[in-house]
Amino acid sequence: xxxxxxxxxxxxxxxxxxxxxxxxxxxxxxxxxxxxxxxxxxxxxxxxxxxxxxxxxxxxxxxxxxxxxxxxxxxxxxxxxxxxxxxxxxxxxxxxxxxxxxxxxxxxxxxxxxxxxxxxxxxxxxxxxxxxxxxxxxxxxxxxxxxxxxxxxxxxxxxxxxxxxxxxxxxxxxxxxxxxxxxxxxxxxxxxxxxxxxxxxxxxxxxxxxxxxxxxxxxxxxxxxxxxxxxxxxxxxxxxxxxxxxxxxxxxxxxxxxxxxxxxxxxxxxxxxxxxxxxxxxxxxxxxxxxxxxxxxxxxxxxxxxxxxxxxxxxxxxxxx
Length: 321
Prior knowledge:
- By secondary structure, this protein is mainly alpha-helical.
- Helices cover 48% and strands 2% of the residues.
């Protein structure tokens, strides 16, 4: 028989988390919109921003500091962007990551390993897209995984010549102009992009420049346009109101309408993500030596501990150890 033990908020820890993160987690009404928009959760069900918000609200900082999912986040900020109450789960994640480093739970060497691996993982994503464009991608061996991690995407080294007229008016997905011609290559979009690690893999500025040079045909056959997370951070940071994410969205639509990719391509892409993301998490767990509890005793929807004897609020931390 299961026992239920309501968890009492740790007021001091909760206040400290909110003061440091400025995430507004107290406004969360647990609608789950953040979970539905998180690309990691969509592909793997392994990262629930709502769970992180609820843990912060209850003040369970120690549990957050030992949560592997904190490092699964791609920092796309999609959760914050779509929250109807303007809660910022990504800011909680950023705060917890800094605290883990400050407290020595994570070392600077581990952080460096993580950053290097995250960059190499974008290579895996690129090669997975390329395989989906060529045909079916339904499995990934260890040797292929390691090969893709270590194999940089070749850079275009030949002289780029202008091919046709620049696309001065490329409608955005909201019906307004995406403004690619206003780009003056300041690189703000590249700096803000969470998946920009190597220009040969994906660079929003390079995509916009190629559009302006009339190199649309080259972009339509490139796996790079399918690496965009659609998080809109490029547009948020652009001083010229260029909407690179909308440019990329339109390029994707053109690739489909011109039969460069078939109608089932996006389905294959989702299936590929479900194959590669579990390996992504496994590598991260190996870097940080953080293990997810096999039996998660915390129900974020009810705020109670399940399957353990009732305990006093002072002993609530034992539920997670």
